[in-house]
Write a structure and sequence with these properties.
By secondary structure, the chain is mainly α. It has 5 helices and no strands.
């Protein structure tokens, strides 16, 4: 990432996390509870939001921050999967891996140490999402259309 570096092992870890969120957190739970995936996602989102309101009770500030960050990360991923379609989760994971790699590469190969590096990185990432979304929708018969809202 733009603040710590990024490598293949880290990408694989995130991919496994994302895959588990969908396969275990949505698909298996939906099947087990005999409910639609949309219902499961909505319940997970509700539970995570409820939990975030209670993390103030976690006393250790770093553990609290880590817990909130992980919960917010999962929450945002579920929202993205919900928006783009659960059936597209493998393509979503690949998109995110490409996005994270591009973020890291752009920062460390071109922007690190330069004025307004983070501003330039954010602008680049917006352009990258739009470009990647167009490429994905052209090559994906499911019309994933990642970069569009």
């Amino acid at each position: 990432m733009a603040l710590c570096g990024f490598n293949q092992e880290m990408l694989e870890g995130l991919s496994g996390f994302y895959k588990g969120l969908v396969e275990h957190g949505i698909l298996e739970r939906s099947k087990k509870k005999k409910q639609a995936t949309e219902t499961t996602i909505n319940k997970e989102l509700e539970d995570m939001n409820d939990f975030l309101r209670e993390t103030r009770r976690i006393e250790d500030p770093e553990i609290k921050d880590l817990t909130e960050a992980l919960t917010k990360h999962a929450l945002s991923y579920y929202k993205f999967v919900q928006k783009k379609g659960v059936k597209n989760y493998k393509e979503i994971i690949q998109f995110l891996n490409d996005y994270y790699f591009a973020m890291d590469d752009k920062y460390y190969s071109e922007l690190e140490g330069k004025p307004e590096a983070m501003k330039k990185l954010a602008i680049y990432l917006n352009e990258k999402v739009k470009k990647m979304g167009k490429q994905t929708s052209q090559t994906n018969s499911n019309n994933l259309n990642i970069g569009n809202h």
